[in-house]
Design brief:
about 325 residues
């Protein structure tokens, strides 16, 4: 497994990570046995950068990951997130970045993960009611206490990132980034990360599974799959976006790789400071994704991909309106 440095002064992590959210929620029924087997297989393959969050499940995904890494803690680089608050039944309560909540949240995560230290601790969404300096200041205290090793932000604006870095080094910024979500390029996030020496971690690098080519109809989603409420997967947007998938499948076929591998190879080609975390709960998909590390795209291939997937290619916003208000804070 190749590695990449997470930020100018950060740690070495596997060049490809594993997003664990879908193992517990959002993409249909959970399959715990297969999910744990997938986590174990990831570690065997060297995919040791594991990403979870306190609210996934809600509040059960960390426990799942914790069970999977028993006896393997020293083999993984463990990232989790806090800041989005949900009720135990899943209801959304808001965003909380207040200093007192920072400490409350880390104690809960450490207990669920059954670890003494989290390697990378992200603020999941920026709290508009709390100065980022106050939130990051409280997070920095956790580093000094040994409960956290490195700090990160998720879906933060360049301005917020700069203010945060003035308080404490930020190792990674996580945002959605893929062939059909190129906002970090156009909004200045990637440029800010590079200027400030912050690593960039794309989540949903496969367009929430759409770029795999496996989804051909809204009926392919389970009744409780959150993509049913996502504008990109509805009505005319779905039909228009399906044509984009057909484009990537045609390109992948000519290359002799899968659509997933081509899409991931494109994200990996964006720079050595980019470490995508595709999510899956199946070993077969994990192994397919790892194969993307061996795909090399020529300048001509990259030009054709860019022509087919300009920054505004996807139809529809990437979240419903309420959720969109929480990104770029």
């Amino acid at each position: 497994m190749r590695t990449r440095k997470l930020g100018r002064n950060g740690p070495e992590v596997s060049a490809l990570g594993l997003g664990c959210m879908g193992m517990s929620e959002f993409y249909g029924a959970a399959e715990e046995t297969e999910s744990i087997a997938t986590l174990h297989r990831a570690i065997e393959l060297g995919v040791t950068f594991l990403d979870t969050a306190d609210i996934y499940g809600p509040y059960t995904n960390e426990a799942l990951v914790g069970r999977a890494i028993v006896g393997r803690r020293d083999q993984v680089f463990l990232a989790t997130k806090f800041g989005i608050v949900r009720d135990p039944d899943g209801g959304f309560r808001g965003v909380n970045g207040r200093p007192q909540y920072v400490r409350e949240a880390i104690e809960g995560s450490l207990k669920r993960l059954n670890v003494e230290t989290v390697d990378l601790y992200y603020l999941h969404r920026v709290d508009p009611q709390t100065p980022i300096e106050d939130t990051v200041g409280a997070m920095a205290e956790l580093v000094r206490e040994g409960k956290v090793r490195f700090l990160g932000l998720s879906e933060a604006s360049p301005e917020t990132l700069e203010r945060a870095c003035a308080v404490h080094p930020i190792t990674a910024l996580q945002s959605e980034y893929s062939l059909w979500t190129r906002d970090p390029e156009t909004g200045g996030v990637l440029d800010a990360c590079r200027r400030l020496g912050v690593g960039f971690v794309p989540y949903s690098p496969l367009g929430r599974g759409f770029l795999t080519g496996a989804i051909r109809s809204p009926d392919d989603f389970a009744p409780d799959d959150f993509r049913r409420n996502n504008p990109r997967f509805q009505g005319e947007n779905f039909a228009r976006n399906l044509k984009l998938v057909d484009e990537i499948q045609a390109m992948a076929g000519k290359k002799g790789v899968t659509s997933s591998q081509l899409a991931l190879a494109w994200v990996l080609s964006r720079g050595d400071d980019v470490v995508p975390i595709p999510g899956t709960r199946r070993r077969s998909r994990l192994e397919e994704n790892v194969g993307a590390l061996d795909v090399r795209l020529t300048p001509d291939e990259l030009a054709r991909i860019d022509a087919a997937f300009p920054p505004d290619a996807a139809a529809g916003t990437r979240y419903p309106e309420a959720s969109m208000r929480l990104v770029g804070g």
